[in-house]
Amino acid sequence: MAVFRLDLSYPELKIEYDGAAFHDLPAQRRRDAKRRAWLRDRGWTVIIVRRDCFRGDALTSWLGQLQRALNNS
């Protein structure tokens, strides 16, 4: 059984937000990719939000992803 720690999630909606902390090293990125694939295979929407995602087009992009995920749930 796979066990993953989620940064922030809405389990009832199957939405996970992947924050910026602890995602910089190659080993961490490989584990992130594995976790994201596992979640997506089970119907989750994974929205990656980093510290630079709170302005301009990046903000619009992830908020749009969230809106679409909420509308589809």
Query: What is the number of strand segments?
Result: 3
Q: Roughly what is the average pLDDT, rounded to an integer?
A: 85
- Total separate domains: 1
> Could you describe the largest sheet, including whether it forms a barrel?
3 strands, mixed
Give the helix level as a range of percent: 40-55%
Shape: flat
End-to-end distance? 26 Å
Q: How much beta, percentage-wise? A: 15-25%
User: Which structural class is indicated by helix and strand composition?
Assistant: alpha+beta
Quaternary organisation of the protein chains: single chain
Give the C-alpha Rg.
12 Å
Instruction: Note poorly predicted spans.
Output: none
Physical arrangement of strands within the biggest beta sheet: 1-2-3
Order of helices and strands: EEHEH
Provide a count of the helices. 2
